[in-house]
TrEMBL record, chain A:
Protein origin, superkingdom: Bacteria
Database matches in Pfam families: DUF2063
InterPro entries in the record: DUF2063, DUF2063_N_sf
Listed GO MF terms: DNA binding
Domain Putative DNA-binding: start-end pairs: 6-114
Protein name: Putative DNA-binding protein
Organism: Acidipila rosea
Keywords: DNA-binding
UniProtKB/TrEMBL annotation, chain B:
Residues making up the signal peptide according to the UniProt record: 1-28
Listed name of the protein: Low-complexity protein
Domain of life of the organism encoding this protein: Bacteria
The keyword Signal appears for this protein: yes
Keywords, sorted A to Z: Signal
Sequence segments annotated as region (Disordered): 63-99
Length: 305, 99
């Protein structure tokens, strides 16, 4: 066995999924005993067999991945309970194994995976999906890219047909439950050391945060970063639709029209809300010029009635 | 002139808000050497999500060879920060030094 063969051999063995009891499997996919495979390139010592020495690396690999995903979803962990959460993470990693040099994005597909697998959440499925989406949004807002927001000159050049770009770290969520309060409550209750979940370590869970009661209720939320902190800002439905329209590439006028298409607000109230929406968005630096453009965006001269 | 379904008055209000908000942000920027001073109120930014703990180790540890949460070693030491450097992760079967 040359070095390349040895590396490939060990990589395959280390990345082989664990048993439900977090132990190394006894047989490889091809039916060969893993003990024989381990003995073919790992020497035993007086205390550990080849299998046991390999198992340490196998378990560490998976525990590392499980922890990396788990620490991004502490509220989901608290909501589902340790057993269900562990099962979810293991199933998720089985379908979405690590393929990148960074662990940062390892849990990025967990909300979609959970949405497609209600069996992991039972009656609280929609609530769990909302929590997962919010916790993922936190991760994205935490270290998402930040562009230079509009300058005064750029803002002055904006017209009805102009298109704007939203800050990459801004996440817009339409939720069925007010999970922002839930996530904040759980975080507040959990000591920092506990936020780092350890699905794989079977730690004592008696200190796990309790989930406060939460009633179903539509929520439009912006998750964003300001001054190096992540914030949850609740939005009016029309503001959410406006920002979502801009994010999808609609012009200012088109996004505003879509936002108020089904609104029951009076024209005066619409104008006020539009003003406030743009004021807050620009104050928080959410609005940016389109990348690669020089401010001089085409715009329509507006005639104020 | 292009027809829109929102009134020109509403769009004018939108541009007024855009310009006003931009001016507020630029005027509120902290001076050099005074970064970290928040220039918006919680009413504008929303609820802070990280309890104001800006230096959490979250994410910073990912990809590093810290023992934290790796479950190395025996079941007693598995996943404990205390395992770091104590040999609980050792693969030769050696025992952690007694403190």
């Amino acid at each position: 066995m040359n070095l390349l063969e040895l590396q490939r051999r060990m990589a395959e063995d280390v990345r082989r999924p664990l048993t439900e009891d977090y132990e190394m499997r006894s047989f490889a996919d091809d039916g060969r005993p893993v003990a024989d495979i381990a003995a073919s390139y790992i020497s035993p010592n007086s205390r550990l067999s080849s299998f046991e020495r390999l198992e340490i690396y196998n378990r560490q690999y998976w525990f590392r991945l499980i922890t990396a995903v788990s620490e991004d979803y502490p509220t989901l962990n608290a909501l589902l309970g340790q057993k269900r959460f562990d099962a979810l993470i293991l199933a998720y990693l089985d379908e979405h194994p690590s393929t990148s040099w960074t662990l940062r994005d390892l849990g990025a597909k967990l909300p979609a995976f959970l949405a497609a697998h209600p069996e992991f959440a039972g009656r609280r499925h929609r609530l769990a999906v909302d929590v997962a989406n919010l916790e993922l949004a936190y991760v994205d807002a935490f270290d998402g890219k930040q562009l230079d927001p509009l300058t005064t000159e750029e803002a002055q050049a904006i017209g009805a047909d102009s298109r704007l770009f939203l800050q990459p770290h801004l996440r817009l969520l339409e939720l069925a439950y007010p999970v922002d309060n839930l996530v904040l409550a759980v975080k507040k209750e959990m000591p920092e050391v506990d936020i780092v979940s350890s699905a794989a370590t079977h730690r004592d869970v008696t200190n796990r945060a309790k989930i406060p009661p939460v009633k179903r209720g539509k929520l439009f939320l912006a998750v964003h970063r300001y001054d190096d902190s992540v914030y949850y800002r609740r939005l009016e439905k029309e503001t959410f639709l406006l920002l979502e329209g801009l994010r999808l590439g609609a012009s200012v006028a088109a996004a505003a029209s879509q936002a108020f298409a089904k609104s029951k607000l009076t024209p005066d109230a619409q104008a006020l809300l539009l003003q406030q929406s743009f004021a807050h968005a620009s104050q928080l630096g959410w609005l940016c010029p389109l990348p690669g453009t020089d401010v001089a965006l085409p715009h329509l001269e507006m005639k104020v009635n | 002139m292009k027809t829109t379904t929102v009134s020109n008055l509403a769009l004018a209000a939108a541009f007024a808000g855009l310009l006003g908000g931009t001016a507020v942000r630029l005027n509120a920027q902290p001076l050099a050497g005074h970064t970290g001073v928040s220039s918006v109120s919680p009413a504008i930014a929303g609820a802070i999500a990280d309890n104001g703990q800006k230096d959490l180790p979250k994410h910073a540890c990912k990809g590093q060879n810290d023992c934290k949460g790796q479950g190395g070693g025996d079941k007693k030491h598995a996943g404990k920060n205390a395992c770091k450097g104590q040999g609980a992760c050792a693969t030769d079967g050696s025992k952690p030094p007694k403190s």
